[in-house]
Amino acid sequence: MKVDARDLRTNDTDDRGRIYLGTEYANKRVTVAVVEVENDQPDEDELAAAYREASESAESLAEAWDDTSDEAWNGLDE
Predict the structure, then answer these.
(1) CA–CA dist 44, 71 (Å, integer)
(2) Which residues fall in a compositionally biased region of kind Low complexity (predicted)?
(3) What is the pTM of this model?
(4) In the structure, how many helices (H) and strands (E) does the chain have?
(5) Contact 32, 41 (CB under 8 A)
(6) DSSP state for residue 41 in the 8-state scheme
């Protein structure tokens, strides 16, 4: 089956995975092919890696702040 590139459409699905084709297809038999699926949300691995990185960064920042805070308080005592 040959498909003209002008006949290809990109649509977004609703929260149940449905696509509205339009009234021009009412009461007609249509054949639909899913050519590509894009996920608009990060996958679980990417999300977990980002959280890990943020957690490590926060720990590093907390340690640096703790050292700086101790230094500042020690400077006030002198």
Answers:
(1) 40
(2) 50-63
(3) 0.37
(4) 1, 0
(5) no
(6) S
Q: Which two tokens stand for residue 58?
A: 């926060």
User: Is the dihedral angle over the CA atoms 16, 18, 19, 23 positive or is it negative?
Assistant: negative
Look at residue 43 and give its three-state secondary structure: coil
- pLDDT score for 1: 66
Which structure tokens are listed for 6? 């002008």
30: its two tokens: 């249509």
Q: Going by C-beta distance under 8 Å and a sequence separation of 6 or more, which residues neighbour residue 12?
A: 19
DSSP H/E element including 24: none
Report yes or no: 5 and 13 within 8 Å, Cβ to Cβ: no
